[in-house]
């Protein structure tokens, strides 16, 4: 069995981090929010919440918008360029700002961290990966350990974690596997490791 298939099909995450993700999603609505929750390298323990910029969101700066269009053209092609008959925008998909992502990657390297969770919100659809999400998470640079969290801020979203539609997935070589989400107050007694401590960056 491949290594990625042996990974535990569960995301263990602190309640305060769930609240951080949902607060970010609500603040950005109707635009999609996105970000990373970093943790110690080699540990399945999301700890440090990092809000990111959705580069698909218009900035008002002509040069920045030109770069955003270039980024969108890389991610979106063919049928993916539209969402239910309309041109895709920051209300229907996300992409990280390239410079910010490089800065955050360097920061994680310096702190001996890795992106345990990559999250984003859906504002008009269920919390399930779209084909754009799957393409974005796949490829030679993808990491099968990453938990892809999607939350929905659409009206009437059915709750899956507390009062929120908050779901987690592994995406490996284009294959989507949903996993359970276990919310804990601290990692002290969860199965992420006996030496874990409940801390915040």
Q: Can you describe this structure?
A:
The protein is built from four helices and nine strands; from the N terminus they run βαββαββαβαβββ. It has a domain at 3-54 and 97-184: 3-Layer(aba) Sandwich (Cytidine Deaminase, domain 2), CATH 3.40.140. Helices cover 24% and strands 27% of the residues. The longest helix has 14 residues, at 15-28. The strands form two sheets. A seven-stranded mixed beta sheet has the order 1-9-8-7-6-2-3. The chain has a two-stranded antiparallel sheet with strand order 4-5. The chain has helices at 15-28, 62-75, 98-110, 131-137; strands spanning 10-14, 34-40, 48-52, 82-83, 86-87, 113-122, 147-152, 165-172, 175-184. With 201 residues, it is of the alpha+beta class. The termini are far apart. Residues 11-170 form the MPN domain. Keywords: Hydrolase, Metal-binding, Metalloprotease, Protease, Zinc. This is M67 family metallopeptidase.
Outline of the structure:
With 201 residues, the chain is α+β, with helices and mostly antiparallel strands. It has helices spanning 15-28, 62-75, 98-110, 131-137, and strands spanning 10-14, 34-40, 48-52, 82-83, 86-87, 113-122, 147-152, 165-172, 175-184.
């Amino acid at each position: 069995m491949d290594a990625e298939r042996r990974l535990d099909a569960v995301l263990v995450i602190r309640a305060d981090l769930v609240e951080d993700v949902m607060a970010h999603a609500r603040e950005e609505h109707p635009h999609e929010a996105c970000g990373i929750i970093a943790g110690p390298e080699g540990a399945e323990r999301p700890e440090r919440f990092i809000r990111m910029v959705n580069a698909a969101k218009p900035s008002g700066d002509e040069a920045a918008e030109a770069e955003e269009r270039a980024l969108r053209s890389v991610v979106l092609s063919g049928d993916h360029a539209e969402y239910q008959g309309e041109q895709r925008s920051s209300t229907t998909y996300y992409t990280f700002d390239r410079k910010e992502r490089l800065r955050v990657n360097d920061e994680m390297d310096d702190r001996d961290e890795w992106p345990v969770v990559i999250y984003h919100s859906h504002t008009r659809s269920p919390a399930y990966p779209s084909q754009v999400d799957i393409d974005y998470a796949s490829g030679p640079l993808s990491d099968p350990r990453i938990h892809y969290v999607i939350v929905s801020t659409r009206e009437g979203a059915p709750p899956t974690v507390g009062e929120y539609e908050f779901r987690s997935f592994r995406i490996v070589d284009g294959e989507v596997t949903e996993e359970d989400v276990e919310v804990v107050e601290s990692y002290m007694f969860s199965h992420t490791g006996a030496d874990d401590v409940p801390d915040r960056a």
